[in-house]
C-alpha cells in the first residue's frame, strides 16, 4: 500500500469559506457547531424526565381497562417509537453516506446503531412486562413483538458488522448498504409477521383497536415521548463527537507509527 | 407514592429496568467520550475540541 | 452476454469439480431433517404437522452453509479484483453468481427433498406443495445470501457474520414458504402465501445483484 502524500494540515482557521452543508461535513466544524447544543439538550431531557415520571406516577389515573399496568406504557411507547425512529435516522444517514459521501453521515450511522439496539431491547423488555399481567404471558408471538424482535436482530447485526471491519471508512459504506437493504425489508417483515400471527392466533388475544386514550394518559405519554426522543438526540450528538475524536486518534496514531518507522 | 394495584411488581420492574438501562447507556456514552478526550491529550493533539467539554 | 455466460459456466464448473461439496450440502440438508425425529420423538402426527417447517429450516441452514464459498475464494485469488475491473458490470457478475449459487446449492436440495418428505411422514399433497414452495422461495434465499456474503467478504472474520446478518431478512421467506405448505388459514391463504413468495423471490433476485455489487465495490478500497 503506497503511503499517502503528506498534505498540509487543514485547520478550521485555514479552511476556505464553505456553505453550511459543507461546513457540517467538516468533522471539526460539526463538533464546534453542535457542542453548545449538548448541555441545553441534556438539561431539557432531565427536566422532561422528572416531569414525565411525576405525571406517570402521581398525576395520572389508572386506566379503566388496563388498570395500573397502563403506567408501563409510558416507558414502552417511547422506546418502541425510538426503536423505529433510530432506524430511520440510520437509513437517512446511510443515504447520506452512499449518495453524498457525507463524512458526518458515517459518524451518525455508527453512533446510532448501539443506541437503537438498546432502545429496541427496552421496548421488548417493557412490552413483555406489560404482556404478563395483560395477556398472561411474558412472550406472545404477536405481530408487533415479533417484528420488534427481528428489528433487534438487525440492529445487533449492524453493530457486529461495524466491529468486523478495521477500516471504518470502508465499514461505513458496507454498513450503509446493509442498513438500506434492512430499511426496504423491515416493512415486508412487518407485513409477513402480521399475516403469520393473525393466522396462528385466536383473534381474541389481541385486539388491534386498542382502548381509546383519555387525556390524563396522553399527557404523561407525550412528556415521556419527548423526554426519550431528546435523550436519544443528546446521546447521539455526544456519541458522534466521540466518534469524530476516535477517528482523529486513529489518524494521529498512524502518523506517530509512520514517524516511528522512519 | 400512590398504590400501583395488583401488578405493582411488573410496573416497578419495567421502570427500574428501563432507567437502570438508561443510566448504563448514559454512563457508557460519557465514559467513551472521556476516554477519547484523554487519548487525544496523550497524543498531544492541538485542536481545541480535545481539551474542553 | 458472453461474459455473463462465461461467469455462470465457470461457477457451475467450479462447484461441480469442487470435491463433492454439493453432496455434502445435500447430506447436511437430509441429516438436519432426519435428526428432528430424534429430538421431538417419532410421533407420526406431530412429524407430519411440523414437516414443512423442518424442511424449510433444513434448506435455510444448508443454503447458509455455502455462503462463504460465494465470494471468498474469488477474493482470495484475486478474481474478484479482476471482476471489478472487467467490462461486464459487477452486478451482472453477481447475478450470474446468484444463479449459479441457486443451481448448485438450492436445486440439489429440492431434488433431495422427497427423501426428507418420506422420513417426516408427509402426505403426497403436502409434498407437492413443499416442492413448489421451495422452488419459488429458494431464489430469495440465494439473493439474500449473496448480499450477506458480499457484505462480509472484505472482513477477516466474516464466516459467522453473514448468516447472522441475513437470517432476520429471511423471516418473510420462511413465513410465506411454510405458509404455502401448511394451509393454516385454508387453501386460499396458502395460495396467497405462494404468490407472496414468488413476488418476494422476484424482487430479491432483481435487487440483490445491485446491492451485493455495491457492497463488494465499496468494501474494497
Automatic annotation (TrEMBL), chain C:
Its main location: membrane. Keywords: Cell inner membrane, Cell membrane, Cytochrome c-type biogenesis, Membrane, Transmembrane, Transmembrane helix, Transport. It is found in: Cell inner membrane. One of its GO terms (biological process) is cytochrome c biosynthetic process. InterPro entries: Cyt_c_biogenesis_CcmB (IPR003544), Cyt_c_CcmB_bac (IPR026031). It comes from the Bacteria. It comes from Devosia soli. Required for the export of heme to the periplasm for the biogenesis of c-type cytochromes. Belongs to the CcmB/CycW/HelB family. It is a multi-pass membrane protein. One of its GO terms (cellular component) is plasma membrane. The chain crosses the membrane at residues 21-40, 46-67, 106-127, 134-154, 160-182, 194-216. This is Heme exporter protein B. One of its GO terms (molecular function) is heme transmembrane transporter activity. Pfam families: CcmB.
Amino acid at each position: 500500500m503506497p503511503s499517502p502524500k503528506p498534505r498540509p494540515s487543514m485547520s478550521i482557521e485555514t479552511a476556505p469559506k464553505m456553505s453550511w452543508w459543507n461546513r457540517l461535513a467538516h468533522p471539526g466544524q460539526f463538533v464546534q457547531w453542535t457542542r453548545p447544543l449538548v448541555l441545553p439538550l441534556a438539561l431539557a431531557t432531565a427536566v422532561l424526565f422528572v416531569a414525565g415520571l411525576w405525571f406517570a406516577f402521581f398525576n395520572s389515573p389508572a386506566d379503566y381497562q388496563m388498570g395500573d399496568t397502563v403506567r408501563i406504557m409510558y416507558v414502552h411507547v417511547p422506546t418502541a417509537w425510538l426503536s423505529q425512529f433510530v432506524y430511520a435516522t440510520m437509513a437517512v444517514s446511510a443515504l447520506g453516506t452512499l449518495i453524498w459521501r457525507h463524512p458526518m453521515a458515517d459518524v451518525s450511522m455508527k453512533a446510532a446503531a448501539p443506541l437503537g439496539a438498546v432502545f429496541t431491547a427496552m421496548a421488548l423488555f417493557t412490552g413483555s412486562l406489560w404482556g404478563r399481567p395483560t395477556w398472561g404471558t411474558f412472550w406472545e408471538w404477536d405481530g408487533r413483538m415479533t417484528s420488534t424482535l427481528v428489528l433487534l436482530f438487525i440492529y445487533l447485526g449492524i453493530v457486529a458488522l461495524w466491529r468486523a471491519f478495521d477500516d471504518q471508512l470502508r465499514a461505513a459504506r458496507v454498513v450503509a448498504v446493509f442498513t438500506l437493504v434492512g430499511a426496504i425489508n423491515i416493512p415486508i417483515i412487518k407485513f409477513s409477521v402480521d399475516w403469520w400471527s393473525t393466522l396462528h392466533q385466536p383473534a381474541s388475544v389481541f385486539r388491534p383497536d386498542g382502548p381509546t386514550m383519555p387525556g390524563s394518559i396522553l399527557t404523561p405519554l407525550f412528556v415521556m415521548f419527548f423526554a426519550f426522543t431528546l435523550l436519544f438526540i443528546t446521546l447521539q450528538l455526544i456519541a458522534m463527537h466521540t466518534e469524530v475524536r476516535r477517528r482523529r486518534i486513529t489518524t494521529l496514531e498512524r502518523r506517530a507509527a509512520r514517524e516511528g518507522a522512519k | 407514592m400512590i398504590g400501583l394495584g395488583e401488578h405493582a411488581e411488573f410496573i416497578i420492574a419495567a421502570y427500574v429496568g428501563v432507567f437502570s438501562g438508561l443510566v448504563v447507556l448514559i454512563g457508557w456514552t460519557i465514559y467513551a467520550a472521556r476516554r477519547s478526550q484523554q487519548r487525544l491529550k496523550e497524543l498531544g493533539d492541538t485542536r481545541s475540541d480535545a481539551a474542553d467539554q | 452476454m458472453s461474459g455473463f455466460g462465461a461467469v455462470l459456466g465457470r461457477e457451475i464448473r467450479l462447484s461441480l469439480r469442487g470435491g463433492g461439496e454439493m453432496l455434502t450440502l445435500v447430506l447436511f440438508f437430509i441429516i438436519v431433517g432426519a435428526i428432528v425425529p430424534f429430538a421431538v420423538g417419532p410421533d407420526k402426527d406431530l412429524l407430519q404437522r411440523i414437516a414443512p417447517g423442518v424442511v424449510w429450516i433444513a434448506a435455510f441452514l444448508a443454503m447458509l452453509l455455502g455462503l462463504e464459498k460465494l465470494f471468498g475464494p474469488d477474493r482470495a485469488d484475486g478474481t474478484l479484483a479482476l471482476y471489478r475491473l472487467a467490462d461486464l458490470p459487477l452486478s451482472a457478475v453477481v447475478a450470474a453468481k446468484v444463479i449459479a449459487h441457486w443451481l448448485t446449492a438450492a436445486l440439489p436440495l429440492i431434488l433431495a427433498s422427497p427423501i426428507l418428505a418420506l422420513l417426516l411422514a408427509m402426505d403426497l399433497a403436502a409434498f407437492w406443495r413443499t416442492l413448489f414452495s421451495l422452488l419459488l422461495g429458494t431464489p430469495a434465499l440465494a439473493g439474500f445470501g449473496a448480499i450477506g456474503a458480499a457484505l462480509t467478504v472484505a472482513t477477516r472474520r466474516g464466516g459467522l457474520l453473514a448468516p447472522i446478518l441475513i437470517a432476520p431478512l429471511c423471516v418473510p421467506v420462511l413465513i410465506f414458504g411454510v405458509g404455502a405448505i401448511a394451509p393454516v388459514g385454508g387453501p386460499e391463504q396458502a395460495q396467497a402465501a405462494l404468490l407472496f413468495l414468488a413476488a418476494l423471490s422476484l424482487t430479491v433476485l432483481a435487487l440483490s445483484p445491485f446491492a451485493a455489487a455495491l457492497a463488494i465495490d465499496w468494501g474494497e478500497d
